[in-house]
Amino acid sequence: MEKQGKQQDAEREQLAKSKSLVKNKLVVAAIALICAVALVTGGCFTYSAYTANGFLKSVAATGTAQSLFASDLLTGYMSTPSNDDLARAQRSVTVYPSNGQCNFTFSIYNYLLSNSNFCNDKNVTYTLTVEGHGLDGTTWSYSPRPGNSVMLPENQPTKNDYTVTFPEDKLGHAYFVIKATVVSEKSPGTELTCLAAKVVPSKRAEVKTAAVEGALVDEAGKFTDYAAYNYRVTVTGAPANVTLTWGENVEIDPFFEINHGATVDAAARKATFTMEPGSMVVNFYRADGKTPGGWGDLGISVSGTTLTGTTETQ
Length: 314
Description:
Immunoglobulin-like; six-stranded mixed β-sheet
């Protein structure tokens, strides 16, 4: 009897192993089928990264970008940031005084600025607060001023612009704490708690010639939290011919050439284009098989000349 019992136990163990093997084969087959469908339908798998601490999702690039809730000035946070958090990652903006007043504008949106086809496929609702400090009771404002919450509708590329205005004589003293707080129960389109920043305005230096400058938007964040990178190009003074270069660890947004009328040489890792005074954000993604170790490994830089041919600063 004991021998028969051991034999039955062995048979049951063998049967369990067989079922597990069959299950594993079915999983592998299912994955292969999904990949085949993606190839047939023209889809591909990529990473989407936003200005959020540790907020990356792998999605199929089929025309929408899941979980996109972003800003050109505010940083995304998974939990409510403290004042110290905001102070460490404060943002500076250049203002242009006029008639004794200064202003700056920031935007909140649900799509990739470089390609509006990549849009959040779920609603995001937020409330906006702007706190002014160092203004000593003077009159300042921001507009438009939402009465209640604001919704970025699903599958509709939407960008809301807000302008903060304050007296010129408060430059050097004034700063603003801006928060777009997510209404979680109405926001299946994001896992962020808020977009926020401490914003410090500064006066524009007098510009006698054009200047072309560039900076990584998210460099204050933890590098390993990102699989894609935003680089802001700024032109001041006059229109310029801009040359943007990058290292072997990244690739430029594949839609950049079409959206901005640029000439892109992927082999030389270089893009050239003409740009009016202002700023724009260029998206870069990790190159296949590359794992950069830090911001310095991206190798992104920009230079430019005025349209008359004078070499300008970077």
